[in-house]
Design brief:
435 residues, alpha/beta, Metallo-beta-lactamase, Chain A, 2 domains, six-stranded mixed beta sheet
Amino acid sequence: MKFIIHRGSNQIGGGCVEVTAGKTRIIVDVGLPLDYSDDKFVDPKTYKKPRNHFPSNAPHVPKVPGLFQEGLPVDAILISHAHTDHAGLLNYANPDIPVYCSKGTSKMLMAGSIFARQVQPERSRQKTIEPKTPTRIGDFVLTAYSVDHSAFDSVAFLIEAGGKRLLYSGDLRLHGRKPGMIRELLAGIAAKPVDVLLMEGTHFSSQREAGCTEKELEEKLWKYFVPLPGLVLANFSPMHVDRMVSFYKAARRSDRIFVVDPYAAFVLHLAAGQCRVPKPEAKNGIKVYYNQHFEHTWRKRNLGRIHRMFLGNRIEMETVLSKLAEYVMVCRPSMFKYDFHGTFPPESVWIYSYWKGYLERPGSEYPDLMARLEERGGEFVTYHTSGHIFAEDIEKLVKTMKPSRVVPIHTTGRNEFQKRFTNVLVAEDGQVNEV
């Protein structure tokens, strides 16, 4: 067995890994770089590739023969989760390659394609993999294991061939709502040693301090909500179902109705068919607000089914504005102009629940939102915990797994790996590595 990190050995996001054995080639993740810009590159959502043509000169597409350029065939693409830095280049890949992912990842790819300009492979290409169920792909046996991350139904991949075992961690954490997932992963790999562990090291990149758990975040939100006199505006990724649950539970504990938009409602609807999360229904303390962007676009985008899906639990903006202290409302920056008409309700609080680095990006809308909130006696606050494993937990997990070699990926902190472990293999992008 051999592997090549085509991108991701010394950066966060944009990952793409090739694993080969015998005559079989598989690709693990096809991510869009985090510094991708619509102004700089071709938009993968609108890019329409003629058959047998590959964008070899596109600067954000790694040169992988058979995947993005002409070359030897690729037998499968594995997608660990639906974030664009792991799945955002699916539109560029050879359309004849089957795409393997979990049921929930397939659902999130669909939701992202409908509401967030993300990409989704054709349904005919998709192969659903069940966690803990081995799947044969040519010379490989693939087993997916569910992991806790900020995208619903994320997985790690155990890849076996010729008596060798490679584990691709994907993105994961130990401080989420589902500690049982990591126990199942550890039990699943315990029978035989892992020869190579490709381990995400996001938190080794900047030595960020460990944050709170997801349940502790819920507690903080609840305590913050209780005395607030105005509307709470919740800003987070709808694909982060556990974060949505944290806001929902905090809202209900503070006697507030949780108001979601159609994107968040659709994600809850999809997730509720697979795990225990509340359906977007009034009886569960959830109402659906049809924001102006959705109202103006659903007909031309042929989204009548989704439009009808939540009508029985709909709430109007006038109702929210009449009793501000009774609601926690999922919000995004565009709503300031189109739904609040350029004026926030008095004493509103905007709760930002993403990585703080996004606030500092050029052209960010958030500085203006902060100023407008302050004008109305409101506040902009951050309540967040990472979707990635904390540094101390990386060390604990790797030492528990005891792989023969640990390979840093999804990180700029390779030196930190070398400080903490004695069995590190630093694999450069494009380098062929024997397992």
